[in-house]
Amino acid sequence: MGFSCGIVGLPNVGKSTIFNALTKAGAEASNYPFCTIEPNTGVVPVRDKRLAVISQLVPAEKVVPTTLQFVDIAGLVKGASKGEGLGNKFLGHIREVDAIAHVVRCFEDPNITHVSATVNSLSDIEVINTELMIVDMETLEKRKQKIEKLAKTGNKEAREQMDVMARLSEALDGNRPARSVRFDKEGDTAYARSLNLLTAKPVLYVCNIADPSESDNIHVQQVKGLAEREGSEVVTLVGKLENEIQEIEDPEEQKAFLREMGLEETGLDRMVRAGYHLLDLVTFFTVGGKENKAWTVKANAKAPQAAGKIHSDFEKGFIRAEVYNYADLVKYKSEHAVKEAGLLRVEGKEYVVKDGDIMHFRFNV
User: Could you tell me the CA-to-CA distances from 115 to 78, 112, 124 in Å, in that order?
Assistant: First the structure.
């Protein structure tokens, strides 16, 4: 697994309700601020229809999907960067995740309190983003103080690092997140990543609505407009309804309920899939024998890195990978037929893993 998505937002926007539905972990969800203090975590399967098809063509004892970890982080408030609402602790939890799922309240309900007394999706988002930006500004200022003297001596690396921080600071001063800054040099990109800025993390906006018929209400439209300008992703779902869906254990009953509600799939499936894409991940498969299993790696990962997902010894002792693609298996119906068609390849250490690859690793330790 190894990839995590932190669920953030103002208090009472539905974070814990959505987390419960995602993980069935039973995290406390209450109608008062800060009911979540320590972050709850849950591992969620990424449903991939390809795995079911593979298992029809290549029998195995067990079928194991790939997963993502979701972390339910307590509600932030204005002033969190200065410690308001136990903010510093919660901001530290955000630093540890790979991406942010920002839950936004996009419904009106006088029975559910709002920390600002009125529902304004863009204002709510701005509160969170401002607090994250303030923390990032402080992070950059501290780092600058350490490097500035060295840069003044003419040290080339230090000067380049100062230039990277200057561009990031300019963006933050202009109310733009660090993720909006693009660097031409790979070294600059790597250094910016090493700063671990909160606003550099990719963001998925999760619009929590009261009813499926409100999927394009004014609040949702505003969030979509912001996400488009930022290059972020948006998923709209009904938090309470998702909880009801997940309580139906029988898969066929669940499908019938979805049809009755006019839905093709759960909002949570869309959320998990969007989080998977947001993190720029690809899936490869190992098949046959004890299990058919899906694995997650970053896009552009090479074969030894993929092998290391299975076991560190596989990466250390990597010799080669025997590879073919899911599409070839579907077309030829068996591994033997794929091999007979000349589509099973032997790849070395520089091979870049493609989404849908089916891989057998050879290693020596």
Answer: 10, 10, 9
